[in-house]
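Build the 3D complex.
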Amino acid sequence: MRDVIVVGAGGGGPVVAKELAARGLDVLVLEAGPRHAKPREEWTHFENDANNPLSGFFRFGPENRDKPAWFREWAQNSFLWQLSGVGGTTQHYYGNCPRAYPGVFAGYDGADKAAYDTKHLFPFSYDELVPYYEWVEATLPVQTAAMGTKEEVYFGGCETLGIPVQTRKTTTGASYRPQENAILQPGGNAGKTSDPNLLQYPKATGCTFCGSCFQGCMEPINAPRNRFAKRSTDNSYVPMAITADVWAGGGKRATLVTDAFVTRVHTSQGNGEPVATGVTWRDNATGDEHREDARVVVLAGGCTETPRLWLNSGLPNPNDWVGRGYTDHFFDWVIGSFDDYTGNSKGVGSSARCDFPGYGGLENVGLPPAIQAFSALLSDSGIRGQYTNGRGMLGPWDGPAGRPMGPELKELLAGGIDNLLNVLVITDDHVEAQNRVTRSVLPADANGPVAKVQFHQRQRSAKTLANREYLARKAAELLRGAGAKKVYRIDWAPLILHVQSSMRMGQSAATSVLDSSAEARWVKRLFVADNSALANGLGGPNPTLTAQAVATRTSEKIFQRYFDGDPWVTNESPVESTDSRVSMELSKLGL
Amino acid sequence: MAKHSMTRRIFLARVGVLGAAVGSGILVPATAHAGSAGPISFARNDPAGLPGLEDLVELLRPLLAELSRDTLNGLTTFVVPGRDAYSRAQGTPRNEPGALDAKATDFMIESLDNFVPFPQQLAQPMAAALTTALSDLGIDLPGPLDDLLPGQVKDLDDALRVLLENDATIPLSLVIALLLNLVATQVNPLSVHGAFVSPFARLSFEEKAKAFELMERTDSDLVALLDTQLPEPLRGSVSGLLKFVAGALIEFAGFGAFTEYAVFDPRTKKLRGTPVGWRLSKFDGVADGWNELKGYYQGRTKVED
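Done.
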């Protein structure tokens, strides 16, 4: 019997695995997708090869790319961009690590208290989470982002908005700043050349400004895996978890099994209530089923797959909140075209942001051509100049919101991919029960009934709808201030990223699945450690850092509650994931 | 002519199959044989060959593949027009390359048919709905399509049904093509005739946009009609999926056209040439790094709380 089984090696699961392996527990991590142990052999920077959601190496599917991706049902014009594999969705994220706004936590008493999702606050205070933020920020590590041209252009726009620069980790008011990123700052030749001979580690360290964050990070060339620039968990927490014995006193290395889809969580009755006892997983390659027992089971399959697994396992759901309250930051997309070079396709995907507590935020996003075209074409407002779907909002952008398509798309891109600047609108979307994951009635796949994801694009709360409009206007003003000659508002259909809170922890037992320790209210020894555990949409900031801080806190709760251990975050100093002992051990392991 | 036969004739014309069959010579209109002893149908009625329904199904298969490709050519050039006949036909010719040069149609067909894990349990009822759901909306069939004999239409209809209902795997690209053509003929009934095999490909840019508007509209009659033909519990799922499909077809046609798909060698993981989308967008391409570091905003490399 294992001490702990972690289901999923995405953004959250490896945090628990690393923390508890460091305490000497016997941890098994099961990941449904591929390992990607040798990215220089397996990956390229090409968009279709990497990001095709059906056949790319970053897709939601098994390791064998000749096999179809796994099916999920969308019941609306939308796209759920998640992926399987070690690192999960952090494989293609931009490393943005802002903290949540304090207003989304219990006990907040600021003047703008009423502006947040007050019905769905975190069941503990911001101050209580700060030590866990600090622990994760030191572990990854999180650093202040360097600038490329697109950040200079973006900041030029920010300087016209009449808001101050923020110079602290905690956000207390409307402001702008470089991102706090889980991207190692450039060193040596990094950021100064495209000559591969000069970009060999250690002649180059940290971010080389390759512009391929969305295609996975394998820079600098020949760097140890735990010193790749982007601190996705495949480069940070996973290497630490599988080498825990060499860098943590009394640590025990975690076992990682990939291409292993968990199909069922097992329970038994204990003291009149269900207790998790283990899982069944299916080998994608052979179809063979395996069963493993453990003292504690931690679900970290993500906001869509964790509720699916729960429901497919027949676990209790007495208040019907499993899968509900799924937030997605109700994104929107505003594009500016410029006469001058913006560096859109180069550098970290996003290194600058604006925060508007009570509304959400904005960030710059740099893209290569195909994702740029995709992003311009994902709209709920139809085709510009042709039809509006009853929307096509007017504002400080040019013409109605909607897709620039056909000749207009070509003309937009013909100005040059590096003469564009994108602003992502990240709305403070309030938790709504109607946005949810259920089991689809469409035929099951080999892993059981598939997930159906429902998003009500137009029927959000009045505050959520107003927040998005406020921010879209700010985005257009920013781009005008930066010098854009033309500004397009796309009115994105749901691009389901930044997914959160579908298995939410909460103050009220009536509207949450997890208690304040992230343990299931109705199944003991069963915890959730991915974004689905978050209580709300954080007010807008990107969720990865907060999910990892909460997962660190959850690790302590598990260790105290079921292994008679003591907490460590306030008493010890974290080891940085770039630690040379990790590098050396990875080298021995051929990783 | 029996009402059912007329309805089926119109349906087959609307999804593009009837026109494709005539265009390819599988079906021969009666007027084409004026002066002969009687109406000449295709081989099934040929006493010498006596091929049956199965043979017609086999004749139909490549025809449907061609229809799919033609329809998706109409789609990809709608999203990214170029210097091709489809872009000219829709009224948006361009001097620079477009979706067809980027092999975006191949990208769509390969993706739809090989990688979308679309359950056959869903594809088959959808195809069945497409082949049975649609009533006569009063579209005239002037010219050779109206000249076919009921027997010919019935044979073609039978073959299509066999193919869609009995095949182990229905290509999703075909289901999509039938859907696009059906909506195309709703937007412009005259699109049953003309250049190309596909009614959708015959539409103007504005008409193609109207076709997508019909599919995207949440209250689309067409979507509702397809949905009601399906058994529970699939009913609500299909209408939702079709709304998804309408958006996804546009987004992924654009994605495909701007990727390296057409020139990527999966064996070496290298490019055989410069992707069309890179030329169109003046993209510098991929590299392990760029000379792009400008320093730190206000010189600050670190913040504390």
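Chain B touches chain A through 78 residues (CB under 8 Å).
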